[in-house]
Amino acid sequence: MADPKSAPKQPKAKHKRGQGVATVYDTIKREILELRMAPGSPVDETKLTERFGMSRTPIREALVRLVGDGLVVTLPNRSTIVAPIDFFELPQFFDALTLMYRVTTRLAATHRSQDEIARIRELRDGYAAAVAEKDVSRMIEVNRDFHAEIARAGKNHYYTELFERLLDEGRRLLRFYYSSFNDELPEIYLDEHDRMVAAIEARDVTDADEIAHAHADQIVRQIQSYISADRRENASMSL
Amino acid sequence: MADPKSAPKQPKAKHKRGQGVATVYDTIKREILELRMAPGSPVDETKLTERFGMSRTPIREALVRLVGDGLVVTLPNRSTIVAPIDFFELPQFFDALTLMYRVTTRLAATHRSQDEIARIRELRDGYAAAVAEKDVSRMIEVNRDFHAEIARAGKNHYYTELFERLLDEGRRLLRFYYSSFNDELPEIYLDEHDRMVAAIEARDVTDADEIAHAHADQIVRQIQSYISADRRENASMSL
DNA sequence: TGTATTTTTTAAGTCGACAACAAGTATTCC
DNA sequence: GGAATACTTGTTGTCGACTTAAAAAATACA
User: Fold this and answer.
1) What are the angstrom distances between the C-alpha of A153 and each of A105, A112, A190, B130, B149?
2) Which of A57, A164, A189, B233 has a CA between 20 and 30 Å from the CA of residue B58?
3) Nearest nucleotide, C1' to the C-alpha of B14?
4) Domains and CATH numbers, chain B
5) A89-144 pLDDT tens trace
């Protein structure tokens, strides 16, 4: 993982009032999701103080918010750490992810505006571009944004919030395993994305649901296969 | 709503290190859910400072957490208020609530332990007792706990968290309208609760789903009827 | 008298410092 | 020499004060 020393410090930057926490929050969140901060690694308030060139108060507030997002865990009176990836609750994660894929896509098919279709299409193209360039980290990020935008078009913020949280967690998982571009899955995803957008634009709820379901299953299988591949690797070490 | 002056101050209480925020958080959360703090009313950090006898820092942290829960809203640089009840997004609320009722009850039917059944039964009895005493506010609270316990038995914390949030929001809505005990609904709920527990214990997923669905519809209809009754009242004023 | 502008006030955002707590480390006693 | 105890260290939790943004009040102007 990234060495704290190599992290860009910005002590001179005089943050505008009210921008402080937002900056810290966004930066740390991104670093956690991109696995630049390892799950389980300690988060030192004092170091962040130096790094962001501000006092502990705004840093602390940002961390409290991250705790609310489930991305950071604080052990009372003793160290706060980046939320570990809990492999035992992966089945529950998959279940919730699949359901939210379906529900948000269904709702999008019902409530989408033409404007939103355009924005979704843009993200679809962004994903296609990332695939063409074989840029894995960009693929993961844009894919998340693509589905988040669809969820937003469904206009139910209860679902949207949970879904974004699940997508973020998925982002960490994919980052964790999906380090090399070595299969044909992205092409399959791209095709499914196209069909998904088409169904949403046609307001075909049944179709949208079906595609979302298949898409979710595909992703779950992908993650599971990476995990079992990883297990096999580790298992071989004990021979 | 409760006058700040009448609120019990506790300046002397020397809270143990680490208990400060928890106390403030729990207290304020409860007051918001019980509508002792009116939706949209300002939350003054300084007043809370006096009331809880501690500095602004822990108060602030509690508020940040409540913002994360969606129970408090902060307008940047200017006032933080108790989250208003947004009537325009009630349909989305109902949709999510219904889905979570179904999903959590289904999962409970699959994953419940005998222990959990016992705890659920206890809460069922608590609800029955509240109905017998015609204690509306207790009914609302115990009902929430009953369903939250079922969700917990389903053992998917993604669903549980969202569901509890929805139940809490529902608690505010019911409090808002359901001030007098004047109909036969509680009896119907009680019956549905019984059938729900039975289905969960029998591990009958289909049945559990059906009952949960009906139960959710019942509650949604209840809230809607209170709202339309309220609308009629307001409408009559403009004549 | 109505509107634009300045002043005041209120509360949020930030800061540096101190106190308390839990581990790790050194020390003492048997 | 080993274990119990005291000390050191690193961080978190809390505090009181200061700074600044934005609303409300007051004033000036047309």
Assistant:
1) 9, 5, 20, 42, 32
2) A164
3) D14
4) 4-82 (1.10.10.10), 87-237 (1.20.120.530)
5) 999 999 999 999 999 999 999 999 999 999 999 999 999 999 999 888 898 899 99
Contact map slice: A 9-48 vs B, CB within 8 A: 17-18
User: Which nucleotide's C1' sits nearest to the alpha carbon of A61?
Assistant: C13
Report the predicted TM-score, pTM, of the whole model to 2 decimal places.
0.88
- 10 Å CB burial of residue A204 (0-12, 13-18, 19+) is middle
Residue whose tokens read 């609308």:
B231
Residue A72 gets which letter from DSSP? E
Give A206-212's long-range contacts (Cβ < 8 A, gap of 24+).
Answer: A207/A109, A208/A105, A208/A106, A208/A108, A208/A109, A209/A102, A209/A105, A209/A106, A211/A105, A212/A101, A212/A102, A212/A104, A212/A105, A212/A106
ipTM for the complex? Answer: 0.86
**How far apart, in whole angstroms, are the C-alpha atoms of residue A148 and residue A100?**
11
Q: What are phi and psi of A184, to 5 degrees?
A: -100, 5
What is the DSSP pairing of strand A72-74 with strand A80-82? antiparallel
Strand C within 7 A of A77 CB? yes
Q: Is A195 exposed, middle or buried (0-12, 13-18, 19+ CB in 10 A)?
A: middle
Q: Using an 8 Å CB-CB cutoff, list chain B residues near A76.
A: 18
Please give residues of chain B from 54 to 93 whose alpha-adjacent beta carbon (CB) lies under 7 Å from any atom of strand C: 56-57, 60, 74, 76-80
